[in-house]
């Protein structure tokens, strides 16, 4: 029974998990859907009332029924590397690959449908609230008046991207750090593109909590006074293991159950009173940097889940 | 309580339903997500543990909690018509619009997650089989050898697109009719793009069965001998109402329940013995042409579902 890892070639986080899987002797097939067709071939056949499928990468062939799990780590667009790439070839190749995989009995980390829903920020905030987290007031608007009223009400607000930084453009990847603004900002540009504004939480630490199946790994990094976004640049502090309060652990379990996520990376701001405020839950968040600094055994947990699930089967 | 219709401006099928909704006095808001932001504004705010959202189109504003239903008819890409359109603006605008709509209590025709899965052909064939339909053997492959062996085994096979015709290119829309081929065809090109091959079913009629909630509308069009694809060109025959066999009705209900579809358009080939063979189920299939020829009241049924659901609530 093989673990299928869908990701691009350069992915250190995936490398860490692959090393663990090799160490335990679990067969692994790694594929970037962008290399389909070309470096890989696939066939899916419907006959006798069932779907039979084979996937071959670098001469190794795996039957779709022999897939133990699928890790949607950071897959490229299907057929993106093809000699005659086109939106249509991408659509056809997606049909072939995911049509086949959706017919396999494999576990998913994460299932594409759960992942798609879990990416939506407004949806996240509502589920976070219903899971018992403290959630800062947030507005997402194309109306300058709404943005200004929100900033006037809360005085200090941060503006951030809902979908992450722009990718895939011609230039270098843009960094888009969360930025603090006040009610005197110019909100006219909001009409040209939706802005996500959130009440600023003065914090004494950033928290990254990684959920893998039923296991939780929390890390804490002290924040400088008035620090807004600790993701970019060196703050002089490192990620250190921390024990999540029991109330937070219960909320995390509630959230991932509602969202149907086998893997999730939660970001919290720890305020001056010690409250953990839910900022976001990234279903595809990196964990390599946290593991390297904190020593938390996240890649081993991911490898374990891909091999055995939560051990319940 | 308002019905939200997400579709492009030119959509005769939507026009038919809008006319029905107007006739019954049901408030309607029609929006092409491509016109966001610009012709429409939206705000979604998280406060006090709930999501509040407003959507304004042409000066009419609807609260997200006052949405009765959302019809995903043929929506454009979010922000595609924006002055500074970009993949990132599309991603942010999708976040804002669908994040808001996923927080509303509205019924969906169809829910995006069900729609996404239901588009996958290999998945369709398996679900069709488990729902009791007769399904022709099919292969979907990037391996020329597999394609040739399939054609040799079944002698007469059709090749078709899995994802529909190419769209959105610079030239006119390409037509891609299903084509009959034999085992002597050249299968080398299969390595460059996956090919979907299916055993040819000699047929005496095409069947289009439209499922709207719990209501079924079947139409039949006589086929010329040796006709392959009756969708393009004039065959001299019209769509006429027909009663679906009870076994087919039961299978349709099973399929749409498994797939979670409020709307679905099934295509069958009626063979020389009268068996209906499942060819595909298009969760977003047109129905205007069938209604106009056959007189089947499909648009009224869609309007009814958008207004009242299946009447069960």
From TrEMBL, chains A, B:
Domain MvdD-like pre-ATP grasp, chain residue ranges per copy: 2-113
Pfam families tied to this protein: ATPgraspMvdD (PF21068)
Superkingdom field: Bacteria
NCBIfam families associated with the record: GRASP_SAV_5884
Protein name: ATP-grasp ribosomal peptide maturase
């Amino acid at each position: 029974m093989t673990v299928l890892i869908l990701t691009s070639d350069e992915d250190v986080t995936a490398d860490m998990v692959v090393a663990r899987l090799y160490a335990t002797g679990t067969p692994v097939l790694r594929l970037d859907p962008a290399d389909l067709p070309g470096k890989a071939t696939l066939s899916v056949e419907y006959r006798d009332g069932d779907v039979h499928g084979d996937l071959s990468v670098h001469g190794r062939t795996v039957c779709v029924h022999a897939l133990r799990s699928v890790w949607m780590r950071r897959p490229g667009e299907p057929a993106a590397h093809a000699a005659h790439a086109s939106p249509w070839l991408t659509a056809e190749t997606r049909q072939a690959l995911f049509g086949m995989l959706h017919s396999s009995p494999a576990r998913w980390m994460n299932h594409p449908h759960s992942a798609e829903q879990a990416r939506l920020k407004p949806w996240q905030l509502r589920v976070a609230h219903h899971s018992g987290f403290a959630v800062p007031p947030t507005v997402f608007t194309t109306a300058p008046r709404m943005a200004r009223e929100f900033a006037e009400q809360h005085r200090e607000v941060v503006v951030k991207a809902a979908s992450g930084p722009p990718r895939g453009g011609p230039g270098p990847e843009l960094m888009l750090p969360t930025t603090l603004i006040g009610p005197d900002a110019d909100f006219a540009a909001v009409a040209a593109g939706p802005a996500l504004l959130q009440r600023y939480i003065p914090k004494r630490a950033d928290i990254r909590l990684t959920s893998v199946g039923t296991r939780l790994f929390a890390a804490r990094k002290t924040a400088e006074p008035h620090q807004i976004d600790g993701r970019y640049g060196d703050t002089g502090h490192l990620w250190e293991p921390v024990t999540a309060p029991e109330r937070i652990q219960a909320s995390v379990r509630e959230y991932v159950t509602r969202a149907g996520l086998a893997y999730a990376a939660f970001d919290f701001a720890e305020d001056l009173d010690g409250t953990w405020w839910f900022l976001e839950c990234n279903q595809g968040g990196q964990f390599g940097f946290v593991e390297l600094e904190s020593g938390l055994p996240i890649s081993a947990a991911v490898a374990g889940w891909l091999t055995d699930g939560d051990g319940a089967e």
